[in-house]
Design the sequence.
């Protein structure tokens, strides 16, 4: 199985989140994605990758589509999320990010959709992410005690990274709870 056939990846989750807002066609998805205040702040997507992901999501039953003709535009394929796609998206929204290198894209993508999900889903995400990071921090602190000089430097870096993530999580969580 090729890596691209594994599903879903960040791109697919973000597409599910965008399509869940309203039925939409690929070109409009690309336009929304690349708006200055949108998910494009976290990362960009190329049209070919976006359309391949849409096709894959449809093949997996997470999206369905229909051809829609426009008055001033050619016939376009309009996508809607399916109940299976909705479940995959909500599960992703509740799942903590498990690696610091993925945090910038994965968690910020989830934060982008925070206003679109029930407060319970958002609370579960933050609770699980904070809990995961606290366990992660404890594990790193234990490894710090066991390592050689270089390993101690690496673990110190990782510890500080997780401490910063935790501090930021608490700040954002507090903001969200007061809104």
Sequence:
């Amino acid at each position: 199985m090729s890596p691209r056939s594994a599903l879903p990846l960040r791109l697919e989750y973000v597409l599910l989140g965008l399509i869940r807002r309203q039925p939409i066609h690929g070109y409009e998805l690309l336009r929304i994605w690349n708006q200055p205040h949108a998910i494009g702040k976290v990362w960009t997507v190329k049209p070919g990758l976006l359309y391949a992901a849409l096709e894959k999501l449809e093949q997996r039953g997470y999206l369905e589509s229909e051809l829609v003709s426009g008055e001033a535009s050619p016939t376009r394929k309009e996508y809607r999320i399916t109940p299976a796609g909705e479940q995959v998206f909500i599960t992703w929204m509740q799942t903590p990010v498990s690696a610091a290198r993925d945090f910038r894209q994965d968690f910020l993508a989830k934060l982008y959709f925070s206003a679109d999900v029930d407060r319970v889903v958002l609370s579960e995400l933050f609770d699980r992410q904070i809990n995961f990071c606290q366990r992660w921090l404890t594990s790193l602190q234990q490894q710090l005690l066991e390592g050689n000089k270089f390993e101690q430097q690496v673990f110190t870096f990782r510890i500080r990274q997780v401490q910063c993530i935790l501090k930021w999580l608490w700040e954002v969580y507090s903001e969200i709870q007061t809104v």
